[in-house]
Structures are given as C-alpha cells and as structure tokens.
Amino acid sequence: MGYKTEIITKDKIKTSNWSGGTTNEIYIYPKDSNYKDLNFKWRISSATVELEHSTFTNLPKVYRYITTLEGSMDLCHNKGPLIHLEPFEVHGFSGDVNTESFGTVTDFNLMIGPGCDGVMNALNLTEGSLLKLNLNKRRNRYSYHNYIFFSPNSDLTLTIDGNNISLPKNHTLIIESYEKDSLSSIEIASSQPCNIISIEVGF
Question: Is the pLDDT of residue 178 over 80?
C-alpha cells in the first residue's frame, strides 16, 4: 500500500495568539518545518479573527487559499476592490500582496510554499449522498501527493480504495500518497447535509 493516513485530533493542534485573535496550526509539512521561517511545503490552519479590520502577514513565495467556517468577510488586495466571502467560499491569492480583511470570522487556510502545488475546494454533501473522487483524472506531474479532508459539522465515512475510515466532525484526515498512482479513488459519505474542505497538494 503506497499511502498512509493520519487523523488530526484537537490535542495535536498547535495554538498561538496573534494581534487579531488566535491561530490553530492543524498541520505543517514537513513536520520539522516552521511557519516563522517559511521553510514549509504546505500548512493548514484555522484562525479566529476578532478584529473588524486586520492586515494579513506578508508571506513572500507563499500562495494562500482561505475560506470562512463561521461569519462572512471581505478581503482587499493592494487597495483594490473588495472580495466578499461567505462560509465555504474559497479564495486564492499570493501571500506577498498587501491584504486587508474586514469582518469577525473563523477561517480556514491553506498555505503552499515554494516547490509545491495545491488547491483547496469546498464540497457540499446532501443527506445520505455519496461523493466519489476519481483520482486517476486528477494526476499532475508530481509523484508525491497529500489529500486532506476536514468536516467542521458532521461525521464522515471515507472509503479509500475499499478501506473505510471514520472521520469525526471537527477532525482532519491527512492521506499521504508516496507512490505514483498508489490511489485510484476516494468516496465520501455523510448521514446529514454538510460542507467539507477538500485539499490536494503535491510536489
């Protein structure tokens, strides 16, 4: 089996304060990398924004995706037009642009460092539905992939090439695929309507 899985529970999350609230670092890769040194390939986090107006930290050579889990926000890049985000609407932008945010929210973030590629999407499941991701159609030039799933409000059952994994709500599943074409499909099921954060990163 050319992949392994890890469920990130609350006790594995690193919490820190920033000027506008708190940040929960859910996962950073490699594990011995450091956010402040910007030596990571990718990082996922969730933050509370308690100030109505805040300025994002400038992150050279980092590409960012952001969505809100609770509350709506407006983003402004380089004094340009406002970009409005409702919960589970995803926006991607370069980390080295001047970015301001307006609104008190709980957000969810993906940061992608140099030499890495990735994307974050929000998926919607209706009650009793089954979502199948065909990974053979999602290959890129990289042989090393990570697939990440986060469901803030509902328990999920994921089937990875026939193997079932239960993911409790508000937990994060990391699937590390270290052999090319080692995964062919992932199925996601929920007993109730829910929104899911889905992330793919590779290098």
Answer: no
Report how far Cα 27 is from the mean position of its chain's Cα atoms: 9
Tokens matching residue 151: 């469901």
Query: Is the model's pTM score more than 0.85?
Result: yes
- Residue 127 has a pLDDT of 83
- The residue extents of the domains of the chain are 12-112, 116-202
Tokens of 198: 């889905």
For the domain made up of 12-112, the CATH class stated in words is mainly beta
Task: Tell me how long the chain is.
Answer: 203
Give 70's strand partners.
Answer: 106
Question: b/e for 18-53, b at 16 or more Cβ within 10 A?
Answer: eebbebbbbbbbeeeeebeebebbbbbbbbbbeeee
DSSP class of 87: B
Of 49, 55, 40, 53, the closest CA to residue 116 belongs to 40
Burial class (CB in 10 A: 0-12, 13-18, 19+), 196: buried
Could you give the CA distance from residue 120 to residue 118 in angstroms, rounded to a whole number? 7
Residue 49 and residue 35: Cα distance in Å, rounded? 19
Distant-in-sequence, close-in-space partners of 37: CB < 8 Å, separation ≥ 6: none
